[in-house]
Amino acid sequence: MLYGTLAPRPGRPDGTAGSGTAALPRVAPVEALPPAPLLPRIKVLHVITRFWAGTSDGTLLAAEGTDPDRYEVWVAGVPGGDLWEPARAAGVRTLETPGFRHALGPADVLVLGRLVRLIRRERFTVVHTHSAKGGSLGRIAARLCRTPVVAHTLHGLTFHPYTARPGHPVHRGLERVTRRLARRFPAIAPRATRAAAETAAPPHRGEVPRSAVRLRDLPETFDPAARALLGVPGTTALVGTVGRLDARNTPLAFVRVAAAIRAEHPDTAFVMIGDGPLAGEVRRLAADLGVEVGLTGPCPDAGRLVAGLDVFVTTSLHEGPGRALTEALATARPVVATAVHGVPDLVEHGATGLLAAPADPGSAARAVGWLLDHPREAAEMGRQGRRRVRGPFTPMTSCTTGTPFTPETSVTTGAPLTSETPVTTGTPYTPKAPFAPEAPFTHGTALAPGLLRGAVGARRRGLPDRPATGRVPEGVPRH
């Protein structure tokens, strides 16, 4: 694994070469050597609430990219998400926990008991939790089992101004109780650490590692082949969004934005890439407002299609900052995004895109209209956004530091990007092949730098590794 995880560096007492040292060649074929013993692996459990594309894709990428020779990775969470099958296909151990639901309820006691039994049986060295409910139950279970290393990723707080008020006191109380049960608090954006400082995470334990986003297969500029697949002529301005059509992403707000834009720019087309429970309401509202909005339906290759847009829009009220937004910037698309949670860390108003007021379709419509009226400035914002997400990573280790934040992605090059590819010579569109983890793999928020410090520190001091089963060895750091 790379530096920034806890791969031993050259000269460490355990004698293992670090990521900066090239592997030495074997002096004889493996088949001619005596069989090597099986080395113990560090067992890692991710506890997450809903395991579906978009919100949990970074967790899946991190689980896929973790070195299988050193780590055994499990994921436990709510049954029924669309990422369970890809996780199993990638060799990740999965447990769709019976009774686990997104909403709080009495059945959570049974879920907690099942997590405790799982952790005690498998003897995990690391328990890494995600989201509000999964984070609370996972951290409590890990503490009851005296798990050596516990971390909680700050994807975004459940109690924010646009959620239902009745749940705020309960979630705030859970966060205050469980904040002391984790050693590390990796966050997806600097603003997430600051927002959580009062309730969810001690300020000195917050850090912002690189986020795992799959960008290698995405074009770096406008793709006319993607536009053709969307069925819109290249001469027509196309404004679109990507995401699940549910209440969190507020797709009805996008329809209202489209109607407002159409009044000033009647030749503009609109598309929503994705599907969800609000698809029917989206069609009805579009018909009522007299605006045509295309819906692609389920689209596993949405990242490639976003390269066919002229302007990417997100109206979400809970974003942190989001995979779709990162992919849009990576393809040099001009973007308009609501100024919520970690989005302003990625979209700098007037530099890498435009920010709009939350829950204000008129604000987003005015921003989109400005980009359509100023194509040269819009293109430059797109290029600068691309440089931001594809450039080298500058870690931000504390919510109090002023270090500039540059989100990192899974590309392997940090070379400066030059002139934009002409529209007539864009990258041909091909369906995305099954994902194979890159070597080396730059994993992200689901396994943050410093996460395994306690466990690997014990190893460096000569303490025994935690076995797959049995009692915890004496001397292993406990939380």
Task: Explain the layout of strands and helices.
Layout: E1 42-47, H1 57-65, E2 71-77, H2 84-89, E3 93-96, H3 108-122, E4 126-130, H4 132-144, E5 149-153, H5 168-178, E6 185-186, H6 190-196, E7 206-207, H7 224-229, E8 238-242, H8 251-264, E9 269-273, H9 279-289, E10 294-295, H10 302-305, E11 311-314, H11 323-330, E12 335-338, H12 343-346, E13 354-356, H13 361-373, H14 375-390, H15 453-460
Parallel strand pairs: 1-2, 1-4, 2-3, 4-5, 6-7, 8-9, 8-11, 9-10, 11-12, 12-13
Helix pairs in contact: 3-4, 4-5, 8-9, 8-13, 11-14
The class by helix and strand makeup works out as alpha/beta
- Proportion of helical residues: 25-40%
- Strand and helix order: EHEHEHEHEHEHEHEHEHEHEHEHEHHH
Beta-strand content: 5-15%
| Arithmetic mean pLDDT | 74
Strand order across the biggest sheet?
10-9-8-11-12-13
Helical stretch count?
15
Unreliable parts:
1-21, 393-479
How many strands, which pairing sense, and closed or not: the largest β-sheet? 6 strands, parallel
In whole angstroms, the N-to-C terminal distance is 25 Å
